[in-house]
Amino acid sequence: MRDRKQESLLVTNRLVLALVGVVLLIGALLGRLFYLQVVSHDHFATLSEDNRVKLVPVPPTRGQVYDRHGVLLAHNQLSFGLEVTPESVPDMERALADLGEVIEVRAGELTRFRSLLKRRRRFESAPLRLNLSEEEVARFAVNRHRFPGFDVEARLTRYYPLGVSSAHVVGYVGRIDEQELQTLDGADYAGTTHIGKTGVEKAYEESLHGRVGYEQVEANAAGRLLRVLSHRPAVSGKDVYLHVDMSLQLAAEEALGAENGAVVAIEPHTGAVRALVSRPGFDPNPFVNGIDVASYRALQSARERPLYNRALRGQYPPGSTVKPFMALAGLFYNVGLATGATYCRGSFSLPGVRHVFRDWKRGGHGRVDLNLAIMRSCDVYFYEMALALGIDRMHEFMSGFGFGQPTGIDVGGELPGLMPSTEWKKTRRGQNWYLGETVNAGIGQGYWLATPVQLATAAAAMATRGQRVEPRVARAVVDPATGRMTPVTTRTRHTGPPESSRFWDKVIEGMVNVVHSPGGTALRVGADARYRIAGKTGTAQVFSLRGGKYNEKTVEKHLRDHALFIAFAPAEDPRIAVAVLVENGGGGSRTAAPVARKVMDHYLLGGTGASTADPLTGAAEDEEEGE
C-alpha cells in the first residue's frame, strides 16, 4: 500500500532544501557582486581602464650624417617589406611554400620569421622579408589575391650611399640585441628596433636617436587596437655634421690603391679629422637589417680583415717615424749627443754584449749630428740617444705626445698602443728591463706600439710646437627642426719644450730635409712639391730576423715590413698633418710617402672640388685649400 502522507512529506523536505540552496547561492552571488561593485570598485575600475586604454610607442626618425661639405653619408630611405598577419592566413606553411614561387625567401629569414610568430599575438603582423626590390613588389602585387594576410608595408631603413668608403668612419646601425636590451632605457627605446653599432652611429647615438613619441589607443579585451585617442609625436633625431671631407677620403683610398693600410689626416690647430681611411673596408648596408651568416663568416675569416679598423685599432711598431720625437727629447733633457755628433759605422754594440745592433745602411753614415740623423734616419745615432735618455725618460716624454694612450678621438673603439717602461714590464710581465730593449725602442721597435691615429696626432703636435689637440671626427650636432647647432668641442694641452724654444726649429728642419734635401730618405716625394713638407719615413718589422738578412724579394707578401710615413705641410704654416701605414708595403719612402703626398696635394692644391658655401652657416668657406 502506498503511504501518500510520507511521500508528500519527502517531496516537501526536498523542495525546502532546494529553496534553501537557491537562496544561499543567490546570497553568495549578491555578496560577490557587492564586493566587486562597492568594496573593490576603484581597483577594478582602474584595471578595466588599463585594459581598454593603452600607450603605444611611436619610434623617432633617426638623424642623418653629413660630411663637412654637406655630402650625405647616412640617411633613412623608404623601403618595402613583406608583413604577415597570422590570424588571416589559413595555412601558414603552404602559403610560405607558395610565396617562394613569387619572391625569394632565404632560410635565415624563414627561421627569424617563425621565431617572431612565437613571441607575437596572432593578430599582430610580423616582418617576413625586408628591402624588397621594385620588381619583387610588382610580382607580389600581381599575385596578392593568392596570399591573404600578406601585405607590403613601407618603412624607413638606414642606408649608406657611399658604402665601403664611409664604413669605418660612419659605422652602421643594427638590430638591438639581447645584451643591449639589458643596458638600454626601455622608455627611450620603446618601439625602436635599431641602434648604432660602430663609428659615428654609435658614438653619437644619443643625438641621432631622437625621442620616442606615444599614441593613446583604445583596445579590446584581446588587445586589438580599436582607435587612437590622443597622439604625442616623436621627436626626430639630430643630424651630425663631420669634419671629414669625403673628397679627401676618396683621394686617400685611391692613393692606397690595392694596398691594405690606413691613412689619417688631421688639421693640426683644430684637431679636425679630414680623412680616416682603413683598407680594406666593407659595405655596411647588409648589416642594417641583419647580414646572413655565410657572408658574415666570410668577412670574419678573410685574411685581409675588412671589419678591422686599422686607423684606430691597428697597433704597429712605429719604426723610424719616432726619431724626430727622440731628437726633441734629447734636446729637452739636455743630452750631450743632441747638440753634438757621433760616428756611425753601420753597427752598434753594448759594452760586454755580443749582440750587434745594425744600421739600415751597411757601412754606416759616417759623422752625423741631429739634423743628419733625422734626415738620413741613422739608426746608430738613435741607439746612442736612447741609451743616454733611458727608457723611463723616453716613456715620460713620449706619453706627452699621446703614445701609449688613447688620443681621445670622439669615435670609440680605439686601442691605446704601448709605450713601454721599466714599471710596465715589471708589472705586466714580472721581468726586469734590459738595455738592449732600450736600444730597440730608440728606433721605434721592440715593445713600442702605436696606432695610425696616434701617429697623426703626434705629427700634428710637432707641427704646432707642442699643442696637442684631441682629434674630432664630428664637427657639430644640428637640430633639423630648429636649426640650432651645437659644436663638438675638443681639448688642447701643451707638451714638450716651450713653444718659443728653438728646439722645435732644429727638429722640424731635420724633417724638412728628409723630404727636400739630397740624402733625405723621402727626397723623391718632395722633389717637385709646390710647398715645403716636413716628414719622416719609417719601417716596422713584421717578424724577427734572428740575426739573418732581410730580403724583401724572397719574403712572402704578408711577412714583409710595414711602411710608415708621417708629415705635415706647409712646413712653415702647417694646415694638414698626415700619417700613412701600408701593411707589408716595405720601405716607407717607397710606398707610404707617395700616398701622403697625394693626400696633401689634394688638400692644399685645390683637389676638393667642393662648394665654397658652408652647409652649416651658409657663409663662404675659407678658400685656402683651393689656392
Which strand-content bin applies to the residues? 15-25%
Instruction: Decide which structural class fits the backbone.
Output: alpha+beta
- Overall average residue pLDDT: 88
The assembly state of the depicted protein chains is single chain
Net shape: elongated
Q: Level of helix content? A: 25-40%
**Cα Rg:** 35 Å
Distance between the termini: 134 Å
Number of separate strands: 23
Sheet with most strands = 7 strands, mixed
Please, how many helices?
Answer: 24
Uncertain spans: 623-627
Considering the chains and any ligands shown, give keywords for the structure.
single chain, alpha+beta, five-stranded antiparallel beta sheet, 23 strands, elongated, disordered C terminus
Structural overview:
- The protein is of the alpha+beta class.
- It is built from 24 helices and 23 strands.
- Strands 2, 3, 4, 5, 10, 18 and 19 form a seven-stranded mixed beta sheet that branches.
- Strand 14 (347-348) and strand 15 form a beta hairpin.
- Helix 14 crosses helix 17, helix 14 (323-332) runs antiparallel to helix 22 and helix 16 (370-376) runs parallel beside helix 22 (503-516).
- The protein starts with a helix and ends in a 23-residue tail after the last helix.
- Mean pLDDT is 88; it is low at 623-627.
